[in-house]
C-alpha cells in the first residue's frame, strides 16, 4: 500500500478518537446530572389515638378515651432558618386514613436537611372517658405556644421530586403519669382526672382541676401542685415528627 495512503488512514483514526471518547465511557460529573429545586410536603397527623380513640388496654387503670375534637393551631414552620408563617388550625380528630392533613408544600433547593422547628399555638381538646359504665366528659383549652426545635427529621431534596415530613401529635401524652424528663415508658392513667369531678356531674372542668392537688404524681422539675397546671405541662409534650422522632 502506498505510504501516503497509510499516513492518511492513520491521521483519520486519530481525528476520530476524541469523538469516540465523547460518545462512550464516563460522561463526566456535569453531564445528565439534574439540578434545581424540589419540593417538601408537610403534613400534621394525630395518629389513631386521636382519630379513633385510646382503648382501655392502653390505660393502666382501665379507662378509655375518645376525642370529639382535638384542634391544634400551627403557628409557624422553620427549615434551615427560613420561617413560614402558617397560622392555621387543624382538627386532628377527623379521619384521614393514616394520611394526616396537609399543611403546606415548600420549594427547596437540592440538598440534605437535618431538621426543622415548629410552633404550636392553642390546643383545644374535647372528648370523653369511659370505665365500667361511668362516663366523664371534658373540654379543655391550653394556651401554649410551644416551640418544638431541632426536630430529628432528616430528609433530602432532589430536583423535580417531592419529599415528605410529618408533624406528629401524640394525644396520649396528656395522660402520662410522669412529667420527669427522660422517664421510661410512662403509664397512661385517668383516675386522677376522673376524681377531680367534685360535684360528680360527669364533666371535668378547669376549675375542678385547679382545685385538685397532684397527689403522688411525678412532677419532675416542674413547680406544679394542681391538676390543671399538670395537664397544661403535659400539653407541651405532645409534639413530635415522623411518628416517634423527638424535638427539643
Short characterization:
This is EF-hand domain-containing protein. By secondary structure, the chain is α+β, with helices and mostly antiparallel strands.
Task: Describe the structure in your own words.
The chain has 248 residues and is of the alpha+beta class. The chain has a domain at 38-174. Helix content is 18%, strand content 39%. The chain contains five helices and ten strands; from the N terminus they run H-E-H-E-E-E-E-E-E-E-H-E-H-H-E. It has helices spanning 3-23, 47-51, 191-194, 206-210, 227-235, and strands at 38-45, 64-79, 82-91, 101-108, 111-131, 134-142, 146-157, 162-169, 203-204, 239-241. The strands form two sheets. Strands 2, 3, 5, 6, 7 and 9 form a six-stranded mixed β-sheet that branches. A four-stranded mixed β-sheet has the order 4-1-8-10, with no helix packed on it. A hairpin with a 2-residue loop joins strand 2 (64-79) and strand 3 (82-91). The radius of gyration is 29 Å and the shape is elongated. It starts with a helix and ends in a 7-residue tail after the last strand. This is EF-hand domain-containing protein. Residues 1-21 form the signal peptide.
Amino acid at each position: 500500500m502506498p505510504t501516503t495512503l497509510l499516513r492518511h488512514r492513520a491521521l483519520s483514526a486519530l481525528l476520530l478518537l476524541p469523538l469516540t471518547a465523547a460518545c462512550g465511557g464516563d460522561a463526566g460529573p456535569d453531564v445528565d446530572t439534574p439540578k434545581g429545586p424540589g419540593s417538601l410536603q408537610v403534613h400534621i397527623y394525630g395518629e389513631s389515638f386521636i382519630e379513633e380513640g385510646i382503648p382501655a388496654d392502653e390505660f393502666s387503670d382501665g379507662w378509655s378515651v375518645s376525642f370529639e375534637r382535638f384542634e391544634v393551631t400551627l403557628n409557624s414552620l422553620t427549615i434551615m432558618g427560613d420561617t413560614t408563617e402558617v397560622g392555621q388550625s387543624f382538627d386532628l380528630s377527623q379521619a384521614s386514613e393514616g394520611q394526616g392533613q396537609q399543611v403546606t408544600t415548600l420549594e427547596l433547593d437540592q440538598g440534605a436537611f437535618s431538621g426543622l422547628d415548629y410552633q404550636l399555638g392553642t390546643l383545644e381538646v374535647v372528648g370523653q372517658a369511659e370505665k365500667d359504665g361511668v362516663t366523664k366528659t371534658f373540654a379543655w383549652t391550653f394556651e401554649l405556644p410551644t416551640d418544638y426545635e431541632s426536630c430529628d427529621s432528616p430528609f433530602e431534596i432532589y430536583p423535580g421530586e417531592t419529599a415528605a415530613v410529618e408533624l406528629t401529635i401524640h394525644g396520649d401524652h396528656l395522660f402520662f403519669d410522669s412529667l420527669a424528663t427522660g422517664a421510661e415508658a410512662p403509664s397512661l392513667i385517668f383516675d386522677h382526672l376522673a376524681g377531680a369531678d367534685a360535684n360528680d356531674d360527669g364533666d371535668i372542668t378547669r376549675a375542678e382541676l385547679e382545685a385538685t392537688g397532684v397527689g403522688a404524681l411525678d412532677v419532675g422539675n416542674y413547680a406544679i401542685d394542681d391538676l390543671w397546671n399538670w395537664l397544661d405541662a403535659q400539653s407541651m409534650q405532645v409534639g413530635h415528627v415522623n411518628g416517634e422522632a423527638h424535638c427539643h
